[in-house]
């Protein structure tokens, strides 16, 4: 783009977020997700445009500033006034929805715990009552066949086992893994496996088999004994920490792949530093924190003050992460790692996640949903593994869910990374999965700004550390 002459039109700064990283200044450009380093000359030019559109002659006062304006225009940081927003790429209607690469098998709706915040059994459940409660081996095989059939030319596939408590249906996992490996090989594809468990049923035999077969594992755990036993209890009310602690210790010694912990953060366990330190001390490679999905009137909901406190605690952990990265060490704060990976690879998302895009969930009875949280939810279902997935329904979902169809998001500078937020959260809050999660937009913006600052500081102090994120997201997109 050439710089307009004064007789043509006004110029303006495009959507961006300016931030500091160490000794340097940057601009995060929307929607390209490009990070552009700003020198003093570029900063002056952008400062003059901060008040709104101006004639180019009022923006540049020297040949150096004119060159800077041209460079800013070249990367899309400056444009003629009124230039339409660049859309965040969508589906090519001729080709239809993309192939399915990941299937999440809800192999059971039963659980041996009665966690108070569980969306599967609580007031926030959207899936309908299902019979049977456990997936049969035949349905699991049909799910694998459906994945291979609907994966098109994709070579790398993912099967994730989920629950309820996944290991309650252990008898289906082993033969399904064997069947999927053989079927994928015959189709010229590769399949990776993962599962989520609450660790209560991790016997020595199961742990050894998981380790020997290279299954990726995420363990749902909420921290030390006090926090774990406050929400993650048996139906009798007995806490689960004393049951899982020794099982986790034995499992971590056997497992060859890094194991992550997933923590549900509620108003009852809002102490991220304490939880992180405890779980890393147990031997977890990394820890991820997920704010509880709930209606606001639940007593364990975080609320506005809770989200503010969570951000402050994330900020402290991010500082520790940057310090470790500066020394070439990895600190397993997976929330920040995931965000840094997206920033580093310049992710510009048209959708908040892979649900209905390259990923589907399968209910125990074989109903196919957008993801594991929607599987078996009636109107949200996309089909059945025995009869096929409705590409028409999937295309309709993707059309309505596209970020450019969400007018509330059009002026937000994090739209290329957020894309409106979790469908399930929106369904619970607003009764409409296509609604942006407006109740925590400010939080997402603040969290993204925190991530950009961390990225800039690492880029300034130890840029070699960021190489660990190259190609990471391609693998991450294969998992839910």
What's the main sheet like? 10 strands, mixed
Low-confidence stretches: 90-94, 122-126, 475-480
Please count the helical segments: 16
Tally of separate domains: 2
Q: What is the radius of gyration computed over CA atoms, rounded to a whole number of angstroms? A: 24 Å
Could you name the CATH homologous superfamily of the largest domain?
Answer: Aldolase class I
Helical proportion? 25-40%
Q: What is the highest CATH level, the class of the largest domain? A: Alpha Beta
Mean pLDDT: 90
The backbone outline, from C-alpha atoms, is globular
The computed structural class is alpha/beta
Give the beta-strand count.
Answer: 15
In CATH terms, what is the fold-level topology of the largest domain? TIM Barrel
| End-to-end CA span | 40 Å
Provide the β-strand percentage band.
5-15%
Which features would summarize this protein structure in a list?
single chain, 480 residues, alpha/beta, 2 domains, 10-stranded mixed beta sheet
What topology does this entry show?
Layout: E1 11-13, E2 16-21, E3 24-29, E4 34-38, H1 40-49, H2 56-59, H3 63-74, E5 78-80, E6 102-106, H4 137-150, E7 156-162, H5 170-186, E8 190-197, H6 204-212, E9 216-220, H7 225-231, H8 241-254, E10 260-265, H9 272-282, E11 286-291, H10 303-326, H11 334-344, E12 359-362, E13 367-369, E14 383-384, E15 388-389, H12 391-401, H13 415-418, H14 423-430, H15 441-461, H16 472-476
Parallel strand pairs: 6-7, 6-12, 7-8, 8-9, 9-10, 10-11
Antiparallel strand pairs: 1-5, 2-3, 3-4, 12-13, 13-14, 14-15
Helix pairs in contact: 1-3, 4-5, 6-8, 10-15, 11-15
């Amino acid at each position: 783009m050439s710089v307009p002459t004064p007789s043509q039109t006004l110029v303006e700064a495009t959507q961006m977020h300016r931030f500091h990283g160490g000794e340097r200044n940057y601009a995060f450009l929307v929607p390209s997700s490009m990070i552009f380093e700003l020198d003093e000359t570029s900063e002056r030019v952008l400062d003059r445009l901060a008040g709104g559109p101006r004639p180019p002659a009022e923006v540049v006062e020297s040949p150096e500033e004119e060159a800077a304006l041209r460079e800013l225009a070249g990367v899309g940081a400056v444009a003629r006034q009124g230039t339409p927003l660049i859309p965040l790429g969508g589906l090519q209607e001729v080709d239809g929805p993309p192939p399915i690469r990941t299937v999440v098998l809800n192999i059971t709706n039963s659980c041996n715990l009665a966690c108070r915040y569980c969306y599967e059994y609580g007031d926030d459940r959207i899936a309908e009552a299902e019979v049977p409660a456990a997936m049969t081996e035949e349905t699991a095989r049909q799910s694998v066949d459906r994945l291979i059939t609907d994966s098109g030319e994709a070579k790398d596939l993912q099967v994730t086992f989920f629950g309820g408590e996944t290991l309650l249906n252990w008898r289906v996992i082993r033969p399904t893994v064997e069947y999927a490996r053989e079927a994928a090989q015959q189709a010229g594809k590769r399949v990776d496996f993962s599962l989520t468990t609450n660790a209560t049923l991790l016997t020595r035999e199961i742990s050894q088999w998981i380790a020997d077969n290279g299954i990726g594992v995420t363990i749902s755990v909420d921290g030390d004994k006090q926090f774990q036993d406050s929400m993650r209890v048996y139906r009798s009310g007995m806490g689960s920490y004393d049951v899982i602690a020794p099982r986790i210790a034995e499992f971590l010694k056997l497992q060859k792949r890094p194991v992550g912990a997933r923590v549900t953060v509620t108003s009852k366990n809002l102490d991220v530093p304490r939880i992180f330190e405890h779980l890393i001390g147990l031997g977890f490679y990394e820890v991820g924190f997920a704010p509880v999905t709930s209606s606001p009137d639940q007593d364990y909901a975080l609320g506005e003050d809770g989200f503010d406190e969570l951000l402050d605690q994330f900020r402290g952990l991010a500082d520790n992460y940057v310090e470790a990265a500066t020394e070439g060490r990895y600190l397993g704060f997976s929330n920040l790692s995931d965000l840094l990976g997206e920033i580093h690879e310049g992710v510009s998302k048209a959708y908040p996640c892979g649900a209905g895009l390259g990923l589907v969930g399968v209910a125990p009875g074989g109903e196919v949903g957008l993801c594991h949280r929607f599987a078996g939810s009636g109107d949200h279902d996309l089909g059945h593994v025995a009869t096929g997935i409705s590409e028409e329904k999937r295309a309709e979902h993707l059309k309505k869910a596209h970020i450019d169809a969400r007018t509330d998001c059009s002026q937000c500078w994090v739209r290329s990374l957020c894309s409106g937020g979790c469908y399930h959260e929106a369904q619970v809050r607003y009764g409409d999965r296509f609604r942006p999660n407006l109740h925590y937009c400010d939080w997402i913006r603040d969290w993204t700004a925190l991530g950009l600052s961390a990225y800039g500081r690492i880029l300034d102090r130890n840029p070699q550390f960021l190489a660990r994120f190259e190609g990471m997201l391609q693998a991450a997109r294969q998992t839910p």
